[in-house]
Fold this protein.
Amino acid sequence: LQVIQLNCGPGGLNSTKRLELNNFLYAKQPDIVLLQETWFKDNAIHQFHGYSMIHRNRHTSYKTTGGGVAILLRESAGFTYAPINEATAPNDQCSDIVQAKLKWNGRELTVTSLYNPPVSSRPRGRQGFSADYTLSACARNGTNHIIGGDFNAHSMTWDLGEEVVETEEGDQIV
């Protein structure tokens, strides 16, 4: 099982990055791709040849551009899948989270793509990412998990040699 995690970064999955991603998918054929910061618009249609996509755009109440998450599943890998209903998916009021339950080779697996925006981009007064709450909530939806994403969790533990402003998220994960 080959899983790739990719933060599409500033500007989201624009036409240039989409072409690069399609070339990568064609060449490497990963089974699962977890995308963050897609910046998809609600009315846009995005397709990746040979892949099924489950995505969640940033909620319109956020009132900022950016964010958004997706899971791409290689169609020839033999997955059966169902998106996890938004009502039962974890929600910490700031993170963008999409989950799917997969069946593959007789096994069940829950896959999560998560984007936790930096503190400077979060709406005021909303509960933000918490390693204890958010990751535990992700883990409630099944027993076997792959959770990937951009947690914006900076820590001297893994940002060695860089000027780092440690975050509460990084401390929680450590």
